[in-house]
Amino acid sequence: MKTAVVTDSTAYIPKELREKHNIRMIPLSVIFGNESYREEMDITAAQFYEELKTRDLPTTSQPPTGQFVELFEELGKEYDAVITVHLSSGISGTYQGAVAAAEMAEGVKVYPFDSEISCMPQGFYALEAAELAAEGRPAEEIMARLEEMKQSMRAYIMVDDLSHLQRGGRLSGAQAFIGSLLKVKPILHFVDKKIEPFEKVRTNKKALNRVAELLAADASSGGEYRAVVIHANCEEIAREWKAELEAQLPSVEFMLSYFGPVVGTHLGEGSLGLGWYKK
Questions:
Q1: What's the whole-model pTM score?
Q2: Cβ neighbours, 10 Å, residue 173
Q3: pLDDT tens digits for 12-24?
Q4: Which residues neighbour 189 within 8 Å (Cβ) at sequence distance 6 or greater?
Q5: pLDDT digit string, tens, across residues 68-106
Q6: Sorted alphabetically, which NCBIfam families does this protein's record hold (predicted)?
Q7: Of 4, 59, 67, 202, which sees the most CB atoms within 10 A?
């Protein structure tokens, strides 16, 4: 059985890695005024953060359903099935768009997967699916493995300013107000597909240490773990943190990634994240 793998741009899988694993990508967009840019195609993360210095915060939009249908049907000419992995349905309608397109697409069986998360943790699902597809595993078996991964998948986000999440409706106004009033550094995570506060600490350093403790606790339970440090235009800080984590947890495999334009719009520059799962 030949299975194709699709994801959306918010997985932020580097182009060379997508090409290596034959993963197709559907872009979301950021909109500055009347100008729309497809992330990872028309605008890079670096260009986006540069634009933010002189322009108002953009809005974001999900891919048109027709774009999904077109891609699914094109893949159907070569593949028996398509697994399409998307950011959490609790913060975007992209997954629902893929579900609608799956019902409309002719000549191919499409399996939409709600990662219930975003960024490189979402990318981990797509990479796992692609590796299993390359081995010729049936789509149902791959989907079962992705569901199994959810049991160990974790992601924590530390933001400098809650106002972006509040404005975009990804976090309630009351929560954002309390955070700014107390000058705390909130640690956020995904609960039931949405972004919710996890804990509040007083400094960035304490936030980083707390999240590192959570990873260490999981890693100590046994098994092999893969983790990713994610940054919003603060790569040097992220690299330093990654080096610290690698020294503390030599048994964990680490990589570095970034919050691109769409997710960066909602989190703001300077945000950091740490995600992981059991291999």
A1: 0.93
A2: 12
A3: 999 999 999 999 9
A4: 154, 155, 156, 157, 195, 196, 198
A5: 999 999 999 999 999 999 999 999 999 999 999 999 999
A6: DegV
A7: 4
